[in-house]
């Protein structure tokens, strides 16, 4: 069972999300909060796998809450909710450890599938969206200047996987392209995240782009 927490200051939005996710037999909404501060309080005592996090909220916004959640011993995957697909706040949330984002008007079946994917460690962003976000990073001058030095800690095979992640490929696509099993791809991705001290695949993609490898 995938345990989900809903964090949004709009009770109607939370109710809608709860209704949508409640239709899936492998997903359970186990916690809710109306702002980031309340979310941190709840999630310190309630184990969840995925948090659907609104960005703009009173008291503590989703950006600050996402950064704080990454400090928990068993940090959940965070998916930010937004109304714009290239919102500056989304970029900052991804930099702070969010695993991806969903538009608030995402169709119900896509929402359910997205929760399942992020819970399984799959990428949340399509190649076109990844490219758009990375372009925004570069345009803002917020790139990682020592990306090549960071990537130097990777083995040759890990670097190939990192470049594939930078191209927005899924684990299955990487497995096919690099002729390895999906389990091996997952193991490589896990080691890459550890070596780069990255919280998610988007951060790996940004590093690969900053290093000029994609």
UniProtKB/TrEMBL annotation:
Residues 3-119 form the Response regulatory domain. GO terms for molecular function: DNA binding. Residues 147-212 form the HTH luxR-type domain. Keywords: DNA-binding, Phosphoprotein, Transcription, Transcription regulation. InterPro entries: CheY-like_superfamily, NreC/VraR/RcsB-like_REC, Sig_transdc_resp-reg_C-effctor, Sig_transdc_resp-reg_receiver, Tscrpt_reg_LuxR_C, WalR-like. GO terms for biological process: phosphorelay signal transduction system; regulation of DNA-templated transcription. Gene3D superfamilies: 3.40.50.2300. Coiled coil: none annotated. This is Response regulator transcription factor. SUPFAM superfamilies: C-terminal effector domain of the bipartite response regulators (SSF46894), CheY-like (SSF52172). The modification 4-aspartylphosphate is found at residue 54.
